[in-house]
Amino acid sequence: MCSLPRRSVLAAAWAACWPGGSRAVDGATPLRFGLTPVFLDNQVAFLNQWRAYLQVRVRRPVEFVQRGSYRDVVALLVQGQIDFAWLCGYPYVRNSRHLRLLAVPLYQGEPLYRSYLIVPSRDRTTKGLLDLRGKVFAYSDPDSNSGHLVTLHSLLKMRESPSSFFARTFFTWGHRKVVDAVGVGLAQGGAVDGYVWDTLALLHPELTARTRVVQRSEPFGFPPFVARAGAPEADVVALQAVLLGMRADREGQLLLKRLNLDGFVPGRVEWFDGVREMSRVVDAA
Questions:
Q1: What is the dihedral sign for C-alpha 68, 72, 74, 78?
Q2: Per-residue burial over 183-197, b = 16 or more CB atoms within 10 Å of its CB, e = otherwise
Q3: What whole-number distance in Å separates Cα of residue 83 and Cα of residue 30?
Q4: CATH 3.30.70.3340 correct for 115-217
Q5: Where in the chain are the domains?
Q6: CATH no., domain 11-111+221-270
Q7: pLDDT, averaged across the chain
Q8: Buried-most residue among 17, 111, 112, 250 (CB within 10 A)?
Q9: Are domains 11-111+221-270 and 115-217 of this chain identical in fold?
Q10: Whole-prediction pTM value?
């Protein structure tokens, strides 16, 4: 039986743990799956394991296609260059006519997560967003719900504009990088995916220890796995079945543990109503 490594592990060592993980999967065109560094940063070994797990079970080659932003991944989906992706709820609702839900992760038993407002841990006075007026603020991605949209919506509710409220803002293109930027003082505040912050606190507590969570948003639908609308139905059914079945076998459970997730469930569009309404308000403004 393979034991679960606590930190980084060589991909070759992991491949030996998974039945069929080192075997090439012959046959049809690969299933191409889009990812951004917003979720999986510095996880090369893990992606090698996950790809081996998926392709053995769908009996097709699987390729992870990594891009630097949600916008790039959505463009690949719309153009038909990839069929599947792990997206945020914000780009999902904005492009829902081109996409369909494949599966939604379960985190702490629910298909939900929150946005965290973080500040440097040495800042003991900031209590909320209002206290960051005139400060430098870090976002993750322009199309991130937790790392951008939630903050924009909150400012609009206060009848404030980001350009006048903050002294300066910038995008880091990854939630981990928001934590880094706030932790080292490049920004006095930042918006980050609560699931990512919590997971970093487990795996890299030295990073999150330099930050402090001062505010948590209401819950939103967890960033979903999606398929492009025209993806072959047989591929959609096969990949969805494998994702939903991960928590039913030992190998899948180990991979889920590495992701700090409990499993996957079929998605419901209404889980993203909160994101959809914030998007409507921000777009109107």
A1: negative
A2: beebbbbbbbbbbbb
A3: 10
A4: no
A5: 11-111+221-270, 115-217
A6: 3.40.190.10
A7: 89
A8: 111
A9: yes
A10: 0.88
